[in-house]
Amino acid sequence: MDSALASDTPYLRETVRTALKILVVGHFAVGKTTFVGTLSEIRPLRTEERMTQAGALVDDLAGIEDKTTTTVAMDFGRLTLSDSLVLYLFGAPGQQRFTRLWDDLARGALGALVLVDTARLKQSFEIMDLVERQGLPYAVAVNHFDASPRFPDAEVREALDLAPGTPLVSCDARDRRSSTQALISLVDHLLTLDPETP
Amino acid sequence: MTRRRNERALVRPHVVTGGRAHPTRNVFDLVTLVIFNGDLPRHAGGTTPQTPRQPLSTAGLSPEKLRIIELCRGGALSVVEIAGHLGLPVGVTKVLLSDLVDDGHLTTRAGSADGRQSRVRLLQEVLDGLRARL
Ligand SMILES: Nc1nc2c(ncn2[C@@H]2O[C@H](COP(=O)(O)OP(=O)(O)OP(=O)(O)O)[C@@H](O)[C@H]2O)c(=O)[nH]1
Ligand SMILES: [Mg+2]
């Protein structure tokens, strides 16, 4: 009884046992969707979370029609990293008012990659506060837009007030290699944060 | 089948268990893996690898739950993929899934592992997997 839906669906390998997530965050139009799409092995999917004006998540079908709820879209993609391990990337909206959604996204996440545009560095402050408040370890990737000014790393670090250990890399979200490299920098960083086990 | 939600539903424990003894509503993470239970041995005795999966009766299930079962029958997916494929909000999907898990139609596989030792090993595995893509 295979439906058309089921046969078109990219299911996980039967051997997958562990699913991890990394958040790809940043201000409006910084390249989150592009980044997730570049790396995903499945057609990136978009899903919605409904929230009340007060910021609570709606988990009732009846709530969908409610005019007092707002919809927050997030995109996500998937990378199979081994027979047993799959990684999900979430492109997350950067607004503070979506705190509840953020709690859900951040819980159990390995860390976050913060995309920034040097032409709009200031716009990244809010999202960096959010990431830090969630206690998520992160790396910063400068997504290079052609028209954006190039600054020395030290200046970007200072502007964003990065801790000395926080990786700062540059990437092109349209390029698979470059985007993979940015993720690697983040995971490398995560490993240095975890004390070696004896 | 009316539901009343409250604040409790928003407090979810960190560790995902697949236990059926408790209401599972609060334990779904976005990347919790969901697996169809159609060939559970406890019904339709004598299920062999050759016979097609035999689902529990789906009589009385809502259209949304039937769509979830139909989708999950094909293989494993994460919670957020199920929501994405079916065009349902994540919160709603979690509630429907937890009912289906409680009823025995679906089962879950814990996503992220806890514990320091396994975390370092996991991160190394992630790193290896990413490097292999370069
Ligand atoms: N030059 C250049 N353009 C990029 C890069 N990444 C994304 N873009 C372009 O920038 C625009 C915005 O990219 P999106 O991926 O939609 O950005 P987003 O962060 O998902 O945007 P919102 O979801 O609306 O906040 C698109 O037109 C992309 O093609 C990049 O690395 N370099
Ligand atoms: Mg986007």
Tags for this model:
heterodimer, A: 198 residues, Rossmann fold, globular, B: 134 residues, three-stranded antiparallel beta sheet, 4 helices, 35% helix, disordered N terminus, binds guanosine-5'-triphosphate, binds magnesium ion, Gliding_Motility_GTPase (chain A), ATP/GTP-binding protein (chain A), GTP-binding (chain A)
In short:
The complex is a heterodimer of chains A (198) and B (134). With 198 residues, chain A is α/β, with parallel strands linked by helices.
C-alpha Rg of chain B, in Å?
17 Å
Number of strands of chain A: 7
What order do the strands of the largest sheet of chain B run in, or round the barrel if closed? 2-1-3
Count of helix runs of chain B = 4
Distance linking N and C termini of chain A: 51 Å
Topology of chain B as a string of helices (H) and strands (E): EHEHHEH
Output the structural class of chain B.
mainly alpha
Quote the average pLDDT of chain B. 74
Low-confidence spans of chain A: pLDDT under 50, at least 5 residues? none
Domain count of chain B, please report it: 1
Q: Kindly identify the CATH topology of chain A.
A: Rossmann fold
Mean pLDDT of chain A: 87
Q: In order across it, which strands form the biggest sheet of chain A?
A: 2-3-4-1-5-6-7
CATH class of chain A: Alpha Beta
Q: What is the correct CATH architecture of chain A?
A: 3-Layer(aba) Sandwich
- Please report the distance between the alpha carbons of the first and last residues of chain B: 51 Å
